Amino acid sequence: MATTGINDTNSERRRTVAFRAMRNTQLIIGFGMIGGMAFAAVVLPHLLGLDPQAVEPLNRLKAPSLAHFLGTDNFGRDLAARILAGASTSLRLAASVTLLAAAIGVAVGILASFSRLLDHVLMRICDGLMAIPALLLALALTATFGPKFSNLLIALVIVFVPGIARLVRARALALRSETFVEAAVAMGASDLHIMGRHIFPNVLSVLAVQVTFLFAETIVIEAALSFLGAGVPPPAPSWGNILYDGKAAIAKAPYMVLFASTAMVMTVVGLTLIGDGLRDLVDPRSGSQPEASWSKRLLRLVLPCTKEGA
């Protein structure tokens, strides 16, 4: 009977979360934006026969037309094809970085919360890495490793692991003082059992919110690195590479910068809305008035100087 009651409670809780998710405006909009971008990046190039590497020297810097509906770049390559291929590159890189950084950060954070020696060593390393601005650290690491996609992936993972590790460590330390963890310790449960059974599942809710913002930040930093020549090596399509090419022709073909930056901003805004929506699901008190909180957060995203009480 007790087991049945617990199962019923868990089922009711899942139904409540699902119902709140379906009513969460920013979550729906965010997933719609990211889903649309991912669908376009994967399906449209094959459906329309777009080739991001096809060069047409006679069609350099052509304005949007029926033949090239977003125009061409300074090498005569179809801009729509390159923006969609850049979306695929950015989403693939950001997903890989997010998964690896989250996995390593969770392991480091939980281990640090159970060992004073590891805590001292690992957190000092994290403090040292976090003292350097993310873009500068990523730039230094990619310059050291070399301009390859795999090296860029490793560099960004190193940049983002410390922040996740600190977040998970703080949550794990708070959980270790909870009654259910103390009861498990009193019953003789091993540290590994407590980590896997009690700590890890309870840090996932906080982690789910954080990784969406990490995903967005990865896209922005990758574009910045590619713009500076330290990211995705050309001629591989990347939003940063498109912006760099468009910089030289911005007076004649401003649409290159406009379309690429619009795609990147839409993706980042979509991920930010997903993060805000997940935060409201994890902590309902953070969004007691969902519609108002969504509009205020979106306004602060567009106008960062907007105050909370505005």
Automatic annotation (TrEMBL):
The annotated topology with respect to the bilayer is: Multi-pass membrane protein
Which InterPro entries does the record match to this protein?
BP-dependent_transpt_permease, MetI-like, MetI-like_sf
| Gene3D superfamilies linked | MetI-like
Q: Which GO terms describe its biological process?
A: transmembrane transport
Describe the location of the ABC transmembrane type-1 domain by residue ranges. 87-275
Its primary localisation, in coarse terms, equals membrane
From the UniProt annotation, give the residues forming the signal peptide: none
Q: Which residues cross the membrane?
A: 27-48, 93-114, 121-143, 149-168, 203-233, 253-275
Q: Name one GO cellular component term.
A: plasma membrane
Looking at the record's lineage, which domain of life comes first? Bacteria
Q: Which UniProt keywords apply?
A: Cell membrane, Membrane, Transmembrane, Transmembrane helix, Transport
Q: Where in the cell is it found?
A: Cell membrane
Under PANTHER family, the record lists: OLIGOPEPTIDE TRANSPORT SYSTEM PERMEASE PROTEIN APPC (PTHR43386), PEPTIDE ABC TRANSPORTER PERMEASE PROTEIN (PTHR43386:SF25)
Family statement drawn from the similarity comment of this UniProt entry: Belongs to the binding-protein-dependent transport system permease family.
Q: What is this protein called?
A: Peptide ABC transporter permease
